[in-house]
Amino acid sequence: MKTIVHKSDTRGFSNHGWLQANHSFSFANWYNEDRVHFGALRVLNDDVIAPKMGFGTHPHKNMEIITIPLEGELKHRDSMGNKWESVLPGEVQIMSAGTGVEHSEINGSTDSHLSLFQIWVIPNKENVDPRYDQKAFEASERRNSLQVLVSSIGDDLEGPLKIYQDALISRVDLDENHEITYQLKSNNHGVYVMLINGRVNVLDTELNTRDAIGISELTEFKVNAEETSSLLFIEIPMQF
Question: Per-residue pLDDT tens for 105-157?
């Protein structure tokens, strides 16, 4: 078993005025040689964006990009023909950049901040045709039970959005004192667990809001909620 604990206050932080960004892994001007990636997970950014502000048109190539709004309204536009699509809390957006795509992401509100997670996963297939998708997921279906949001384009799971990587991205909302068991897909997989809010115990490690733990070389583990908690699981190949 291998674990790595990332406390919330050890993340990289960038204050751009309109953007407050926390980086779990090296990104932009923040570099930590010990935190470049976790397996095929390259980026986990925890962003807060001011009203009417956002990221202007910029390119991506050969990356699987997943965006999970937590509060507010995200607006998305891209070179694939999507024109200011709204993505709301409870929804998830995926984009396979493939051979190349340009997009813009802005806060769709004039008076409220936008809070979101942006995840980049290194793909297992390069130079694919760019693709975009989004879907709403019912919060009631993740109460004390794992809800799979994203899985591999090659698997037979029905319901999740699909990306070009043998990955699973899931959420769960746990009641106080509730315990779940997480089972990994294979010995080659690891899972990065981000505590969105609350307090939990994982492998005798206490995590508080926005703390994270990376777990590998283990088939299963338990998560116990010491108070009402919400978690994000990003399971990916460690060798890719």
Answer: 999 999 999 999 999 999 999 999 999 999 999 999 999 999 999 999 989 99
Quick one: tokens of 18? 């309109």
> Where are the domains positioned within the chain?
2-237
Q: What is the pLDDT of residue 240?
A: 84
Binding-site residue numbers are: 58, 60, 103, 105
Binding-site residues from annotation for Fe cation:
58, 60, 103, 105
Under 8 Å CB-to-CB from 74, ≥6 apart: which residues?
Answer: 67, 86, 87, 88, 93, 105, 106, 107, 108, 114, 116
pTM: 0.97
Length of the chain: 240
Tell me which CATH code domain 2-237 carries: 2.60.120.10
